[in-house]
Amino acid sequence: MKKRLHNLPTLRIDPEQKINFKYNGKNYSGFNGDTIATALYANGIRIFSRSLKYHRPRGLYSLDGECSNTFMEVNDIPNVACEKTLLKQGDIVKEQNVLGTANHDMMAFIDKLDWLMPAGFYYKTMHKPAKIWPFAMKLIRMASGLGSISPDFEIKGKFDEIYPSADVCIIGAGPAGMSAALTAAKRGLRVIILESRPWTGGHFDYRTSYYNTDQSHFNRARELTLKIEKHPKIRLFKHAPAIGTYHNNLITGFQIGDESDSFTQRYIEIRAKNIIIATGCIERPLIFENNDLPCIMQIACAHRMARTYGILPGNNCVFSIGDDSGLEAACDLSDLGLDISCIADIREDGHNPELLNALARKKIKVLKGWVVLEAIGKKHVEGVIMKSLDGTMSCEYDCDLLVASAGKTPLTGHISLLNTKLKYDDYTGFFLPENLPENVFTAGRILGIENSYAIEKSGELAGLKAAFNCGSCEKAEITSLEDDLKNIPGPVRGNKFVTASVKGDKSFICFDEDTTIKNIKQAVNMGFDIPELIKRFTSAGTGPCQGGISGHNLPLFISKYRMLSDNNLKPTTVRPPIVPAYIATYAGSKHTMTRLTPIDDIQRADGGKFERVGVWERARYFSNDYTCKEEIENVRNNVGMLDASTLGKFRLYGPDSLNVLQRVYVSDMTRLKKGKVKYSAMCNDDGCVIDDGVVVKIDDYDYYFTTSTGRAGSTIEWIKYHTRYDQWDFHLVNLTDAMGVINLAGPNARKVFQEITDEDINNSAFPYSGYREMIIKNTIPVRVMRLGFVGELSYEFHVPSSYMPCLWNMLKDSGRKFNIKNFGLEAQNVLRMEKCHIILGSESEQRTNLLDLGLGYLWDRNKSEAKTVGAIALKQAENDVNRLKLVGFKMINNHKAPLDGSLIVDSRIRGYVCTARNSFTLNEAVGMALVESELSNIGTTLNIFEDGSGNNRIYAKVVPMPFYDPEGVQMKS
């Protein structure tokens, strides 16, 4: 490893803590505080990756992830921005997007074929003739994308989530952001700061130039940081980039944890009364021929490499710059030992005279009105050609480092996400917001301010405005500070310079997508006249950088090339996430976000094996026998209990409640009588069944009904939608969570029920599809329905959730002498399948209507005045012979039941198996399937292709439904 610069007060590394890692199978080391990229650079690595399209060598360009140059595979995770990723002990780092190595990429020959890939070539080539497209598509897919990940990869670490709120949320902990935080906190406001770097300070952090006569910039940054960290009203999140800003002052971000944290990463979602955006600036790239070569880097990158990480970025350097930060960096880097041959400055005037004098004392040549024309070298910079802007003079220099920057560009992404229009400001050369949303403020260099004192004062002003919105500040304080700001330096003059006078063949405006100035010209010449269209046609700014490198230069260059006025300058759209995050980070701490029934703990204690069903956790089995033979036979021959609390349960009442039922249910609800249960279904406008359940008439204008588990959450909105224009007077109450349901089923169900009630529940007093309300043990109010979903004598007890455990245990105790047992969803599934009772989603899909499922008997065709949802579509489909039909089948030759979803075929696919099981009750394999109507006749042989069985087919015969107790004797007795 190259010797580091030691004893620098600005260092963020600890040379006493060595960290070992592997790169391409070889052992390397860095220091605590290094990023992977800085550690590699210190070890002499200059080529970090190869570009997406041309496979050109790419190196360290910035240190804030503004492009994909340092994307590598780290610990099996591809596309890790190594310049932002802190080095950890044992990291395994690999190159990606190379055939061979980054130094010797066998795909590099593509760079010479750029003439074959003009702007938009992928829209215009390889699709004619059509027969070559499948072959071309495979090649494109093989060549496209950066990095690859194993389908079996499982990310390691702990991912958390927090949802804090604040009076003020500040994005950016530079001098402006910290000043704003302290000002707001002093007035009693709760403040949250999000800072993307692992430390605060922004552009103050690494600068040794003087903030005032007694203090350097980096010392001022540490002074502000200490105040921030000690203030009880301020909560600082370091290494926590903000990724989105939304309406109603919602800010999202994530924090990267270190070894002392309990999380690897955690998602942060903040609700704030005020937002202060103090994100500062990045550097606007200077465009010239071969501007993407390794060892070309931005000013701040070179400066921070030395001051923050102790790495002198080169030996012999040339600068080509556009503002005073380049002059300051050159002075400082020269003091640290960097040999600087020349500084080319775009500007003719406006330089800081103190910096010019300092450079003169160091005998460093400054060429005003000059720019780099071309970088020379194959795998890294070996020299440069400089040229005066008027084109009259040129010169060459040998170098191993080129520091290049056209100036500054503000980080306005979070402003753009708030749908704020940005307008080009001719003086600063920035895109600045025209009108910020209410309670949103900006501060610092994002406004074009460069004076250090003014930057802090702008932060104080933003903090005061936030305090004023919270009633903690007087208007006079704001006015006084605004007056003070008028007397100190404001925004500085910028420049519009984008590119040297080159053809642009290898002058890159976007590194991520290998988009050149030549490509932009081609797009404009083809009629794409605005940045947004050109961005899409050339892909400039659509890569991982999200416009970071190209976002400002693109509209500037287009305006110049088309000779437009500044009023026509428009930036491209910014979309979240501004900074990419792992999907695991969004997922958070992997909470099991499921709902539990009121007797969940009791069923688990009884040995229930649970699975997630929609939003619920439900008991699927009660033994390790997944055929559930014992559970099924117990219900058929004895008595069992099922927790059915997940059913949707609703009360509908009011003068127009009957009209509502008539509208959404296919049956005629005027025939519904008190004390009876009516089974019916809801359809959508296409006549497709979306829900089924039972309806009970409690009293005149008062109804109780159930829905399927999956529709419980959307039923109210569904009904409101279909009655929105009728001005009906009704009320709908969701009782799903308020009520639990127990299904008691089997030949001995009545005997168990009779043990807990004195009421007459004999068949004559409480017949099939009857409804009763009673009080169990003078305490528990119960609504009891006599149903038969599993084909046996069955009672559904609807009881307030708080009474569920009591009633469940009561039934269990009374059934003990009958050897009562629990049964789960799989046993219920087999029992109802034998009876051919459907479950929506199992025996139906989005194409199947009421008639296809054999439920046409539910539809009352004579209630047209109700405008029943789906009735028109059902009438049109009545004589349609080309629809799928639900049929029952039995396997031929005693073959086992096919898998659910198996295809029914002949010369083509003719349908599929919905549910099939080996029936212990029938002693044969049976099932239901959706098939084309010509296969639905009784006796038709079905050819079933079972996935996983090779080319062998198995056979079944269509038979009448139901399979079990077709007369319904069992459930009606």
Query: Could you give the count of β-strands?
Result: 50
- The CATH topology label of the domain at 159-282 and 410-486 is FAD/NAD(P)-binding domain
* First and last CA, distance: 88 Å
Q: Oligomeric status of the shown chains?
A: single chain
| CATH architecture descriptor text of the domain at 159-282 and 410-486 | 3-Layer(bba) Sandwich
Radius of gyration: 37 Å
* Proportion in β-strands: 25-35%
Class inferred from helices and paired strands: alpha+beta
In CATH terms, the superfamily of the domain at 159-282 and 410-486 is FAD/NAD(P)-binding domain
Explained architecture:
This protein has 973 residues and is α+β, with helices and mostly antiparallel strands. The chain contains 24 helices and 50 strands. Among the domains are: 14-124, 2Fe-2S iron-sulphur cluster binding domain, sarcosine oxidase, alpha subunit, N-terminal domain (Ubiquitin-like (UB roll), Roll), CATH 3.10.20; 159-282 and 410-486, 3-Layer(bba) Sandwich (FAD/NAD(P)-binding domain), CATH 3.50.50; 288-405, FAD/NAD(P)-binding domain, CATH 3.50.50; 508-568, Orthogonal Bundle (Arc Repressor Mutant, subunit A), CATH 1.10.10; 649-734, Alpha-Beta Plaits (2-Layer Sandwich). The strands form 13 sheets. Strands 8, 9, 10, 13, 14, 15, 16 and 29 form an eight-stranded mixed sheet that branches. Strands 41-42-43-40-34-44 form a six-stranded mixed sheet. A hairpin with a 2-residue loop joins strand 5 and strand 6. The mean pLDDT is 92.
